[in-house]
Amino acid sequence: MKILIIGGGGREHAIAYKVAQSKLTDQLYCAPGNAGMEEYAVCVDIGVMDFEGLAAFAQKEKIDLTIVGPDDPLVAGVVDVFEERNLRIFGPRKKAAIIEGSKAFSKDLMKKYNIPTAAYETFDTPEAAVSYLETSAYPVVLKADGLALGKGVLICNTYEEAKLGVKTIMQDKQFGAAGDRLVVEEFMTGREVSVLAFCDGTNVIPMTSAQDHKRAKDGDQGLNTGGMGTFSPSPFYTKEVDEFCKQYVYQATMDAMKAEGRDFTGILFFGLMLTDQGPKVLEYNARFGDPETQVVLPRMKNDIVEVFEACIDGTLKDIKLDFEDNAAVCVILASAGYPEQYEKGFVINGLESFREKEGYYAFHAGTKKTEDKIVTNGGRVLGITATGKDLKEARKNAYQATEWVTFENKYMRNDIGRAIDEA
Ligand code: AMP
Ligand code: GLY
User: Fold this and answer.
1) What's the pLDDT tens digit per position in 251-279?
2) What's the CA gap between 91 and 88, in Å, rounded?
3) Mutate which of 72, 75, 192, 212 to test ligand 2's pocket (most atoms within 8 Å of Cβ)?
4) What residues contact residue 253 under an 8 Å CB cut-off, 6+ apart?
5) What is the pTM of this model?
6) In the CATH hierarchy, which fold is given to the domain comprising 191-318?
7) What number does the ligand 1 atom closest to the CA of 118 have?
8) Each residue's pLDDT tens digit, 105-118
9) Residues lining ligand 2, CB < 6 A?
10) CA dihedral 129, 132, 134, 136 (to 10 degrees)
């Protein structure tokens, strides 16, 4: 098969690595791809939001299957554009991707179908939100309704902070049109777990669990980022939690979407919080998580293209997912200053150390190829993943591998997987 992957981050590199292993893959293309993906794929310079360009390429090259990585094209309807042209594509249609595109939609869905989540209210004007916040309990969580690069969530400890938060989101429009509506949510405490699941419109099969580290600094301090590291599996995701979620969260969400005429095909990402009252949904994403994918896919035994095909054909119930009985840890190497100001263009040395080393991966995120070198080209530069027989060994291996790579202004968290010691 000829396969096209849309996207060019660490997530898409991990998908490309897995797709390249499939016995069904003859030729792999990525748009726009990155320097790391060139190892397995031909990268073509078409942007992820250039739907006409992407579809024209797929038509011309007779691509058999396209896989979409990022949220923006999914929420904007890239799947619909491909399907209108009879091009085979893996991902949710626009009307299903809204589960990530609008937090108000996803909260209303959970409420209507009794899927456990934090209590909430939705507001269309800053005045109404502020008036509600006068009497609400604190801390409180403010969420911009739309897509905001994972950054549109503010946790406010006081009424004053919350008032400022409403201004930031709804008046200053720090997250653009995503802040036209606001969700105000009850603050919850507990362990966070991410579960990615394959969906075929009717059936849902969860993959192994993972945990992200969203804050920039050690000890979960600093600003929220796109993710500074992950580990898989989560020791807190027990059999009981899994059984509860399969019944009351995963299948319940699939059934709810179907009942709304929004059958979900693709990857559904469940951001869960394990609270004292049981697991609750923090958020849904309509795609693979980043950097969760960088620890989940290296542990997957299945031929991933077969699973993608089953999702599109509606035959997922015939598939049994299988993961290695090991663990993986991913440490993000970032540019100092991320997620705020940082410099780019520094030469990256040591990537050759990963070649032919089983169980070690350097997934590229913000990199660029110049004539004969690879240079830094973003806030998050590389995802260094290693496997091991258990989480502790995987963490030791991953941190060891971070030392093989050098570039100026290299920054990472030193406590990825600290929770493992508390398990
Ligand atoms: P989200 O993008 O909705 O997952 O939110 C980003 C992060 O904010 C989550 O990973 C949590 O750490 C935190 N968060 C979101 N909603 C809540 C909540 N209701 N209570 C506590 N923390 C939350
Ligand atoms: N790791 C969280 C996300 O992909 O949004």
Assistant:
1) 999 999 999 999 999 999 999 999 999 99
2) 10
3) 212
4) 99, 109, 113, 115, 204, 264, 268, 270, 284
5) 0.96
6) D-amino Acid Aminotransferase; Chain A, domain 1 (3.30.470)
7) 19
8) 999 999 999 999 99
9) 150, 212, 227, 285, 289-290, 292
10) -120
Ligand 1 atom closest to Cα of 103?
A: 3
How far does the centroid of ligand 1 lie from the alpha carbon of residue 188, in Å? 8
How many angstroms separate the alpha carbon of residue 106 from the centre of ligand 1?
A: 14
User: What's the CATH number for 119-186?
Assistant: 3.30.1490.20
Residue type at position 408: E
pLDDT at position 151, please? 77
Residue 82: which of 196, 6, 1, 12 has the closest Cα? 6
Domain ranges of the chain: 2-98, 119-186, 191-318, 327-422
Tell me the pLDDT tens digit for each residue of 268-327.
999 999 999 999 999 999 999 999 999 999 999 999 999 999 999 999 999 999 999 999
Domain 327-422 is found in CATH 3.90.600.10? yes
In the numeric block, the tokens 């603050």 are attached to: 187
- What is the fold, at CATH topology level, of the domain defined by 2-98? Rossmann fold (3.40.50)
Does 148 sit in the ligand 1 pocket, CB within 6 Å? no
For the stretch 167-197, pLDDT in tens is 999 999 999 999 999 999 999 999 999 999 9
- What residue's CA is closest to ligand 2, atom 3? 289
